Amino acid sequence: MKRALQHPSFAGGALLVLLLLLAALLSLVWSPYPPAEIDIPNKLAAPSWAHWLGTDSLGRDIVSQLLVGSQNSIAVGVVAVGIGVLAGVVLGCLAAARRGWIEELVMRASDFTFAFPALLTAIMLTAIYGPGLVTSIVAIGIFNIPVFARLARAQAHAVWARDYVLAARAAGKGAWRITLDHVLPNIANVLIVQATIQFALAILAEAALSYLGLGTQPPQPSWGRMLNEAQTLLFQAPLLAVYPGVAIALSVLGLNLLGDGLRDLLDPRLARQR
After folding, report:
1. Predicted TM-score (pTM) of this structure
2. Which CATH architecture has domain 2-273?
3. CB 3.0–4.6 Å: which of 47, 115, 199, 253 could bond 77 by disulfide?
């Protein structure tokens, strides 16, 4: 822990991520105003003691929308990355353990999935089930599966070639027992770092989908939809676009810094160099 706190990238990223989590937790129990409360007489109000960051074109409090909007970003990131980790790691380890046609099938399925980015998948799902937060989560989660499948397979292949795995096979251990006892513990650090990176990408993807009207729907606040609503008022109230943009940028920056710090701390070779 002492070495982690002295690492500038990890410390800075952890601080930003902690602020994001605190904002989401705070919004569960308190916000200055109900985020969907419309107050037309006070629309486009300047920052004041009553409204710390002002109000939007419908008189809704900006601080309240930012706080509650952080819940969506975290929910999409956690669930979408969780889908990718659970399904992708299982498929990647299966491909590395079984080889042959199973590995070929998993890899070709991953290549096929990569042909449909999260945005295109969300458009297809929206056409079938309609827009919404769940649509965003499913689309981003599906895109994350091949990312973790390919990474897990590549890292697992390297572990399967180690001497201690050969000794375990000679001792009679089965493929799944070796995967659980030796492969997963040795590739966990790489998967954790990748998960932080995909978390940041999930926040960006959710904001983009909400900006296009495919993600979180009114009256639920969303940073991406706040950007969409602010674009028509850029010359009249430019700060309406700055606030959610800064929130997205700081969240993504924090997760990327955290991922870089974890990579340095969890990689024994880099740790020795430091």
Report:
1. 0.92
2. Orthogonal Bundle (1.10)
3. 199
